[in-house]
Model the fold of this input.
Amino acid sequence: MTRRKLPLLLCVATVVVAIVIVGIAQSATPAPAAFATPLNNNQAGAVSNGMTDNATFAADEAVFMEEEDIGDGLGPIYNARSCVDCHAQPNVGGTSQVTELRVGHTDGAGNFVNPTLTINDGATSIPNRSLANDRAICAQGSVNIPGAEAVRALRATTNVLGDGFVEAIDSNTLLNIANAQPGQSGGQIAGTFIQVPLSEAPGQIRAGRFGWKNQQASLLSFAADAYVNEQGVTSRLQPNESTTLCDTVADPEDHNDANGLADIDHFARFMRATQVPPVDATLAATSDAQTGASLFNAIGCNICHVTSITTAPAGTVINGGAFTVPAALGNKIIHPYSDFLLHNVGTGDGIVQNGGQGTANQMRTVPLWGGRTRDRLMHDLLTFTRNDAILRHAGEATGVINNYRSLSTTQKNQLITFLQSL
Amino acid sequence: MSRAKFLLLIHLVLAVAMLAAQGCTSNHAQSVEKPIAAATPQPATAASPVAPPKLPPPTKAQVEAAFHRVFGEDLVAQSGQDSGQPTFIVGDFNGDQSEDIAIIVRPSAGKLDDINSEFANWIIQDADKAFITPPGKTVVLPPKQARPHIESGEWLLAIIHGFGPEGWRNPDARQAYIVKHAAATFQGTAPSISQKAIRAMKLPVETEIIKEIRNNRKGFLFWTGGAYAWHPEQG
Done:
């Protein structure tokens, strides 16, 4: 090599190395996955996804596990005293066997109408509320469902583990998934993309992604909504009780602590810092599960149960300006097996929340990650085998499920083995 | 400047530029999620039920074609000549605005293993054990039931759910239920809302029920939203 060629070679090498370094820095990496929120009252074993340090994560988890009482603002009507009462399987933040009941009726035009529930022997009305709570802090508070409310639906507890990454998905990513589905399915599948208000950013909307009807777009909104509706605790974002009967605590009942954070802030930060549900690595490595994964994609399950989504880059401002995607959540590859869109697959519950009347019989595609930890299946938990759960899909899913029906018994077994590895 | 010095200079400039780019990446330059027009993606605003299209009465050939498409040789349909009664009935049993068909059947000889297979293409359920949300209360824990098992010679009701305007005649209509304790003498269909007992149950969808006489008792079979259930008439 001549002396004249050496600088040129160095120059080229430098460029290549620099490009590689920049490429690595910008490429997406897998989200950390583990069941790392064991049900310990002292939060032993709690490990975050890196968004917060583990001590902070454990402290947030402790608030998530806190049992509220009347003095804390519990009720007047409620379903549970703590987040963990329902979000517990197999770790804090998971699912449970608990369902709740939503009710309402349809008008003459077939549109869903929220009911007016009654308490206090009919003397007190709670208007415009489809969620009928089961518990009350006083006998007069027990909810009665008027006979005219002819729509009734069970809803299972949803998993929140890994939801920080779900929140960090750019709304445009979800819209792009929705727009691609008709072309992927011969026009049979078309996910409904809805945008919903953000409690922490008044006037702003964003793609809904949490709840069975995609009724929430951010984890802080979700936390405040659940706190007031499931536990009856009002907060700065949800300052109004559904009823004041028997209520002795001034609103908002959720106060800031010494660090300036209310419970809803701790809940949101806990959910954001959880790791995604891990696969059963041993089962996933089997040839049956791997073949099943290929079949899952080949027959079209992945059109709705989307296998991989990359979150928005770190630094992206989301939630109407109220939250910036941190490094721990940004540019991460997740495998939720959901498109976070609404579909009519023949299992709709007739309830309308934020999405308009067209969503009455649509439900959010259930994320299948962590699905091996539950055996009561579908939104109403009324299906007990994976084969039956698959066969319950109809409507938009008809073509895909007919593909499933055409598989051999061995292939079906492989596909279900794959599902049991998630 | 000599050629060698010139190349060295370029080398240094490029190196500095790349390191700067790397630094920028590490600092996560802030961007904002691009807003999406509110009106663009909103779903249909009306849910007015569309009445199922009036379809012509089924022909024997259509019923046989649908039956074999879904159940193959695993089930045998009851012969109308044997019983002297209608052996199938049509209606929108699951309330999805698409016509369904229910056929009285028995397992074919030697096919019980296929019928009861964990991976069969139909859902087996027992009309006497369907779960109905108890009235009035919430936070319900549904029971976990054993999977029903079809026995040899057992009379059953095989139901094929329709798909689209063609209903059960559509070649893609293959969602099927095999229902125990539901095969009976058909007495016709009726709107579910016409039944006081159904109104009291507050089911999520309005459907057509199958009126039956089962074991000398009048009653009806209805869709709960996820399964078929039998309800005897009172009195």
In short: Residues 17 and 320 of chain A are 38 Å apart (CA to CA). Chain A has a mean pLDDT of 93. Residues 163-191+275-375+396-419 of chain A form one domain.
